[in-house]
Amino acid sequence: METQSRHFKENVAAAILDDDLKGAMSKLTSALRPKRASAVAGLPEFDQLRDHGIAIRMHTLDHIDTYLAQFEDNVIANGGHVHWCADEDSARQTILDLCRQHDVRTVTKGKSMVTEELGLNTFLDSHGILPLETDLGEYIIQLRGEHPSHIIAPATHLQREQIAETFRQSHTHLDADRPMDTAESLTEEARQELREKYGAADAGITGANFMIAETGSTIIVTNEGNGDLTQTLARVHIVVASLEKIIPTMEDAGVLLRLLARSATGQDMSVYTTLSSGPRRPGDPDGPEAFHVVLVDNGRSGMIGGSEREMLRCIRCSACLNHCPVYAAIGGHAYGWVYSGPMGKVLTPSLTGLDQAPDLPNASSFCGKCEEVCPMRIPLPKLMRNLRTKQTEMKMTSMRQRVILALWSQLASRPALYRLVTGTVTRILARIAGKRGAFRWLPMTGGWTKMRDLPAPEGGGFFARYNASRKGDH
Amino acid sequence: MTTSPKKSNKKVTAGLFVTCLIDAMRPSAGMAALRLLEAAGCEVIVPENQTCCGQPAWNSGDIKAARVAATPFLDAFDACDYVVVPSGSCAGMLAHHLVDLFEGSGDLHARRQAAAIAGKTYELTSFLVDVMGMKTPPGKTTARIAYHDSCSSLREMKVISQPRALLNAAGADVVDLDKADTCCGFGGTFSVKYGDISGTMADDKATDIEAKDPDMLVAGDMGCLMNIAGRLLRRGSAIEVRHVAEVLDGAMEASPIGGLRDSASQNPGN
Ligand code: SF4
Questions:
Q1: Residue in A317, A318, A371 to alter for ligand 1 test, most ligand atoms within 8 A of Cβ
Q2: Looking at the complex, does the CB of residue A388 fall below 8 Å from at least one CB of chain B?
Q3: Under a CB-based contact definition with an 8 Å cutoff, are residues B61 and B126 in contact?
Q4: Mapping DSSP to helix (H, G, I), strand (E, B) and coil, where does residue A210 land?
Q5: What is the C-alpha R_g of chain B?
Q6: pTM, rounded to two decimals
Q7: How confident is the model at residue A232, as a pLDDT?
């Protein structure tokens, strides 16, 4: 998918004015924050579980080549195939080739953020293969021609009324005056539409929450069961997964899934946990004839030895998005690429290049809430700061910022001069502000004063006052 | 982290790090912090050699500028038992980031100094309560006070109960905000660079505050205070904004942050 992250500031300016978005975001945060909190409170060993999960992920990263090779061996032993793809282009082409090889005309898709990275739907469409999203949220945004705005709730930027409108426009064969005023009625309508199509699809493409080395299985979790139908009803099942989804054992999956569901939606477990271990064997009642795993690197291997390494232990739970006040203010689309929220601020520049997403690591107040709720304790603020440091080192920051910081640091390193300057400036500002005590506007404070007054200094500085008071003592 | 005051007749020496924002914007809060430390029984040292901890540059990713700015700081507090900071954010910088800042600088002495500072840094209210055992502050008030936790106080310095206990002991009616652990949107240079996002976050905070109908909004961080006061003023709110040190000290000689809330100084909404 082409990144629009360079346009972050313009995207933000539009998002801030969008009242529908504001309403949708406040529903998301008020629903998911308390759910996570009570799920975590209900599991006294949550923090130990986190430590265990982190240990699993870090161990796996240390030996990722071994585990991926083991995974491949087991997939082959199960009768499946593994395709290693270095980048977007090769992954897309591989999937297209597989479709052609198996004479696939239509595919159903389970939710997969990696296929969003690949821009797979547009690509398949342009080659005459019709992709149909089966996750409710993905289905809605596919109808609207949009991209996901959240890693587990792709249509979370929409209000119910907007979804009803989309369905009215798309499902023209239905009664135009049907009532659509509850979430249930919308879900039911989507379910009816989709049911017919599962059986007709030639291939099912899903992502993977985890790949298990010891068994050669892939796992997906959903709350709608669409993943099951996608992968069992079609002739061919293609799993598209990025490298770092590998974990050693089934037992490890148990640990991570418990963390994932609680952190994401506050559930003990997601409603459906589906394991895929190869094509249908003789005697199996159902299952695909062919099973392929497309392993996508797309920038990950470059992160393994780098300073953003810890980002690779992300389990895509979305807790950091759900708790982020910046995400709540601007929604997911403003970030301009597949991933949003705090994890997107690190992942997007790491995968697409810092020059493609210069604002993302900077647009954070470093409040630290993301790190606090992240089940993998990924130090997201620290990783963003690392990226800022890289920007400075590569002279990607503005000349103005570099000059201001250099001058300011020189001044700060000379306490006497520093006090003379700040004392004078603050006295002048205090005088200009007069009795009002705050500015509505000052030169160079536009970013601040658009929505806020700027409180004026009292004037003179602390040390003048302190020194005067000491003199009085003697 | 809790240590008891030394049991000798030598007084505890507390080095007051005024912070650049209080120095420039709100000397009253610094003077109040000074008097509070004296009231708690400390010998207070205010080293002349302090300016800024380097945080603005550190958070901008400019390590070189941050090191230059923070260098005078390194030996300014050598003579003190503690570094006490009327700001959770600057305390967080000293306690959790200064060592990282000088790591890789090749200057072993600077790294040792940074580690020493990290080990003896406290946020003001936590120092008063946890180290000096203060139960009742000198100031008295009956105001209904909403206390805002700065993110660094909350997450880096683990300051939650201390300011509330002291405000309660001063007689205040302390109310908790519904979204007490949500950032107010200040974030240093973030507030100017991303004014739209920061202003929206400040507006959410102002809504949360007004819902509790307090007389006063109090916090321990000048950045948050300026941000919240700025948004409250723009919304035309009459809620006074003050640093926690001013209220605990009780002098409250200065106008509230952002000026007096008389009708003449108020803006219509927006
Ligand atoms: S960074 Fe952490 S909180 Fe965010 S999605 Fe990944 S695992 Fe979840």
A1: A317
A2: yes
A3: no
A4: strand
A5: 18
A6: 0.94
A7: 78
